[in-house]
Amino acid sequence: MPWAVGGLRLGRDWVAAPDPATLRARWTALTGAEGAERERLFRPSRSRTTAAGAAALPGQRSATARFADVPGPFPEPVRVLRAPFDEQWLLPDQRLIDAARPELWRVRDGYQLFAVETPELLVTAHLPAGRLGRIRPLHRRPGGAEPNLAPGLLTLLGEHHGGWVTPEDVLCWILAAGRSGPRGYEVPLAADPERWRAGLELGHRLLSVQLRGARGGEPPRLPGGRRPYVRAAVTGWPDGLAYDPLTLTLTLGDGVVAPVPEAAWEYEAQGVRVLEAWFAARCAHRGPDADGLDALGPAGWPQAWTSELLALVTTLALLAELAPERAAFTPGPLLTTAELAAGGVLPPPRAARRPASVLDHQEEGPGGQFALL
């Protein structure tokens, strides 16, 4: 996957939140303020100030004039991956984001998947928007028209393994066989068709769990009797998150979720427990350091968050179950560098490492001017 893009750099935390209602409240507070108070709430940076306009993000409708002059209508929030396994919402207004990576927004659609380089590869249908790692889109153009793969790779794999190979097949193979190495994420390519098919089968299961029902798929489920349920609803605001391995119980204040497998509780990404990080992100607006727009958030625990928690527990439990199988998987004999070079796969052309040109639509630039890309 030659084309890679650095992660979005938001510059100000208040542009993202776990629920869209919070973003509307923050927008209302910001646009209703004036002068020095608006500046304080906005939190200007070297890249973004209220005195500058910016182009509309591809596919989004937002004002492009100077924010100080024309804030414009509320930009409808979009779903993003804010942290590993943490789906939140973002205000899609480039005037508010230090580095929004418009090239990623151009290829963001219902066909797209994003691979995010962390010690364990993450795949999401939502745009990654946080300190996650380099992002490799599966497709270089909207509509899934051109795969972000080394030219010739699909043909070579199809010839070796006796069948049609899709871009999603390659992504599933990466999930099964790829490993973090000294030079980044390293992907051996199997020469044996049996090992290739075994890797695809494992990779498709991993992908299905990671996507969590996105793109019209079925949300992953644990077998009956092991599915987590709400045993006691959360009332008020939970004062903490705790886990009891003896009863497989997760408590949020007076709320209780069970059964929660210990492997789901212990599941870590980037060195922290995913469930603890998820809970902390939803309590951030109530913390002692929260200030300005960052301090705006729901007064009570939204019921929708408990539903999200159940889905997250299921995802982590299933990934933990697949982890030993993935760790034990070996690709067998490998395609050699010479075979890849002979097939025109290596080295990939320099153009494959850059975004594809987009010539079929216009985008609104700063101040309402249009540019042909």
Key structural traits:
about 375 residues; alpha+beta; 4-stranded mixed sheet; 10 helices; about 30% helix; about 15% strand
Number of strands: 17
Distance between the termini: 23 Å
The low-confidence runs, each spanning 5 or more residues with pLDDT under 50, are none
Look at the helices and sheets and give the structural class.
Answer: alpha+beta
Secondary-structure element pattern, one letter each = EHHEEHEEEEHHEEHEEEEHEEHHHEE
Strand portion: 15-25%
Shape: flat
Radius of gyration: 22 Å
Average predicted local confidence, pLDDT: 94
Major sheet characteristics:
4 strands, mixed
User: Main sheet: which strands, in order across?
Assistant: 1-3-2-6
- Helicity range: 25-40%
Helix tally equals 10
How is this structure best summarized?
By secondary structure, the protein is of the alpha+beta class.
3D architecture notes:
With 373 residues, the protein is of the alpha+beta class. Helices cover 30% and strands 15% of the residues. The strands form 6 sheets. Strands 1-3-2-6 form a 4-stranded mixed β-sheet. A 4-stranded antiparallel β-sheet has the order 10-13-12-11, with no helix packed on it. A hairpin with a 5-residue loop joins strand 16 (362-364) and strand 17 (370-372). Helix 5 (167-177) crosses helix 6 (193-211) and helix 6 (193-211) packs antiparallel against helix 9 (303-328). The radius of gyration is 22 Å and the shape is flat. The mean pLDDT is 94.
